[in-house]
Amino acid sequence: AAQWPLSGRHALVTSGPTHEPIDPVRYIGNRSSGRQGHAIAAALAHLGARVTLVSGPVSLPDPRGVQVVKVATAREMLAACQSALPADVAVCAAAVADWGIANPAPAKIKKGPSGDEAPPVLSLVPNPDILATLAAPGPRRPALVVGFAAETDALLPHARAKHQRKGCDWILANDVAGGGVFGADKNTVHLLTSSGTEDWPTMDKEAVASRLAERIAQTLADLSAR
Ligand code: C5P
Question: Which of 35, 39, 63, 155 sits in a 20 to 30 Å window from 174, CA-based?
Answer without folding.
Answer: 63
